[in-house]
Amino acid sequence: MVGEVEPLKALQEGHSRAAIIQRIINEYPLVELDESRLFYRIRKAPKVPTEEAEYDTPPTEFLGTGRLDSTDLPVMYGSQDLEVCVHECRVTAEDEIYVASLAPTRTLKLLDLSYVLPEEHVTEFDSLDMAVHMLFLAGKHSYPISREIAKAAHVAGYDGLIYSSYFSLLRTGSMPFEAAYGISYRRFPQMREYEQAKSIPNFALFGRPIAGQKVTVRCINKLVLSHVNYGFHFGPVGV
Question: 186 with 129: CB under 8 angstroms?
């Protein structure tokens, strides 16, 4: 099978991007994050580790470098998977690492972009699910697109996004883009649960949730790395 994922191609073009983003807002599900949903945020060498504000969204001068944040829309990143938090923050053994355990103070409305979207009578070439899946597996060149999705979700009244961590496949040890008979597993209804399990969801909360009292700090701890394990295999050297 040879071709392009047309919604992904449209996201890369300025004149067609808005229409695909609106489809994303309309077709992906809303998830409610209530007070029982604990998640984590890590900081390396905060100036005052015990200060709750240290674990809020970064100051304005540090915005605009992440996948979803911009100077127009501050974003707090967190995850319910502590190992993913550690990897996302690129920590080393010599870093002073602190972790805040956080929880919403009220029910938050999040747009879930980590969801394996059911699509009937749609090939990979026309699949919005494949487009979003590939977008969040892409590197920094994709950030301007994902930032526009975040802004659109904010305008639509969401408190934030759920999205698949870039490191999901490393965390789960899964193979990317598995297929049968040339068709992605994501297109088979009976494989949706299997594909969903490959995704480690991260939270992106708009604004400054701690300062805005949308999120509370349950506790703060120092995080000490005691063991690291790598799984790998050899691959060919590029020409």
Answer: yes
Buried b (16+ CB within 10 A) or exposed e, 122-150: eebeebbbbbbbbbbeeeeebbebbbbbb
Over residues 111-141, the pLDDT tens digits come to 999 999 999 888 889 999 999 999 999 999 9
Strands 160-164 and 201-206: antiparallel
Instruction: Report strand pairing: 108-112 vs 160-164.
Output: parallel
> Whose structure tokens read 């949706």?
192
Which residue is associated with the tokens 């400054």?
Answer: 208
User: Taking the domains of the chain in order of start, what are their residue ranges?
Assistant: 6-50+67-223
pLDDT band at 73 (very low <50, low <70, confident <90, very high): very high
**Closest to 202 (Cα-Cα) out of 53, 41, 45:** 41
pTM for the full predicted model:
0.93
Q: Using one digit for the tens of pLDDT, what is the confidence trace for 42-55?
A: 999 999 999 999 99
CA angle 161, 70, 211 (to 5 degrees): 70
Closest CA to 166 of 194, 141, 212, 199: 199
Neighbours of 17 (CB within 10 A): 17
